[in-house]
Amino acid sequence: MKTQRLRVDWPSCQARGLCYELLPEVIELDDWGFPVVTGEVTPELVSAARSAVQGCPRMALRLVK
Amino acid sequence: MTARVLGPIGVDVERGPALLSAIDAGPSLAAHRSRHGEPGRPQLTPLLADLERVGLRGRGGAGFPFGRKLEATAEASGRPYVVVNLSEGEPASCKDAALALTAPHLVLDGAVVAARVLGSREVHLVVPGTDLQVRAAIETALRERPDERIGFVVHRADEAFVAGQATAVIELMAGRPNKPVTSWQPAAVRGHRGRPTLLSNGETFAQLAILVLHGVDAYLAHGTPEEPGTALLTIHDDLGRRVVEVPFGTKWEAVLAQDGVDRPVLLGGYHGTWADAGELRDLTVSRAGLGAVDLTLGAGVVLVPDGCPLTFATSITSYLAGESAGRCGPCRNGLPELARALERVTSGIAGLAETERLCGLVERRGACAHPDGTARMVRSVLTRFHGEVERHARGGCSYRRDRIGRSA
Ligand code: SF4
Ligand code: SF4
Questions:
Q1: Across the interface, do A34 and B329 touch by the CB < 8 Å criterion?
Q2: Nearest to B101 by CA among B74, B147, B136
């Protein structure tokens, strides 16, 4: 399985930070609480990443190939 | 020989070798046809080969190969739209306005050729909302054209730096606010109304028209073997504001006002990169040549400020921070902080590391290229004028304070 990437729909993201709670492995928060994607989503992280995507209250996260 | 184009942006347009070769005769269809003739009806495959041969790249700044974009649009499913973006969000850029006023039929020929090749029935033209001259020039030109079985729709863009970004234009066409949104697929694949959309700026379509009207050999007659053809530049220097058409490979010395090459030059506009004083002496108008030394031609804006490059870059950064569409957190929060950090560097209060950190924090973190472009310009001024940064940190400045200009 290929590694996937997380992309943020920036106009939708409102810095709720839930993604960071659900996927600290590849998400940090910046000075203002917006996510910083720090790495690729490796196969082991895919299910956690899916939870983050589904958990984002603004539907601002997507997993892309 | 120059033609004076008056407008909110008074700008001199000089006659050039190809795109601007017929401007003395005025913008009429008759004058255009007598100089350039009628475009044929090229087929997709040979046209793609010709585009590949001349290496035509988009002239909006990113420089994406135009043939690849055309091919992607043709291959995507659905009847495509053609969009000519004449909106030029960057206030320092006037080349598409100049084209609209002096050679509108060249732009329209390019759009019609593209529409025919793609089987499009509609061509959309996006004009700056506040520049009534450009809109009037395009509408006058459209009335002159015979029935081409193509519908033309004119849209007026907002007066905002990011209003010309591709996704902002597609939003405008859909009747939504003229602001960028996240794009999950290129417009060529999924653009206006979800259909493939060939979106490029005015100059790109004019270049396409020149290629089709005069053929590959004529196109190759200008420029260099590696970079054939010409480019439109909007130059702001001691000679004033002007739009010129120069063949690739032209020495900068021949393009800029006398001592321009010996002063710091901002190439590529507000999102561009800085050349050190004298650096352009050994360089030519060439994407590749400039790219090799981390310079960019962008959409062809050339600014030669009269004064300190750090101070000039700082005021541009504040302006760009204000032009954030405010939709994306990192851009909305980060650009004003970046502007303040650079202000501290310029005032000699330090903050260099913080400025660089903030550049990294906004890059690739917005729906459009605005944060990236802003960070590029800031990084470039800090790198190119490192000595000047240190001088400012000691309370100095090599450029006399009273000469600080606001040339843009
Ligand atoms: S959970 Fe969604 S809205 Fe919240 S910070 Fe993450 S991406 Fe943004
Ligand atoms: S990155 Fe900045 S300018 Fe671009 S859409 Fe987002 S907020 Fe607007």
A1: yes
A2: B136
Ligand 2 pocket, mutate which of B370, B372, B374 (most atoms under 8 A from CB): B370
For the stretch B378-383, contacts whose Cβ atoms lie closer than 8 Å and that sit 24 or more positions apart, written own/partner, are: B378/B313, B378/B317, B378/B338, B378/B342, B380/B272, B380/B273, B380/B274, B380/B294, B381/B274, B381/B309, B381/B310, B381/B313, B382/B345, B382/B352, B382/B355, B382/B356, B383/B294
Binary contact (A12, B182; C-beta < 8 A):
yes
How far apart are the CA of B334 and the centre of ligand 2, in A? 11
B328 to A13: CB separation less than 8 angstroms, yes or no:
yes
d(CA A57, CA B145): 52
CB of A32 within 8 Å of any CB in chain B? yes
* pLDDT range class, residue A3, cuts 50, 70, 90: confident
pTM exceeds 0.90 for this model: yes
Residue among B181, B329, B365 whose CB faces A15 most closely = B329
Is a pLDDT exceeding 90 seen at residue B350?
no
Q: Are B298 and B327 in contact (CB under 8 A)?
A: no
Q: What does the pLDDT look like over B362-372, one tens digit per residue?
A: 999 999 999 99
B252 burial type by CB count under 10 A (0-12 exposed, 13-18 middle, 19+ buried): buried
Relative to beta strand B151-157, strand B197-201 is unpaired
Alpha carbons within 13 angstroms on the beta-carbon side of residue B327 total: 19
Token pair belonging to B75: 């291959």
Chain-centre distance for alpha carbon B162: 12
Cβ–Cβ contact A14 with B under 8 A: yes
Residue B69 · residue B188 · CB < 8 Å: yes
pLDDT, tens digit (0-9, with 9 covering 90-100), for B170-215: 999 999 999 999 999 999 999 999 999 999 999 999 999 999 999 9
Residue B6 has what pLDDT? 47
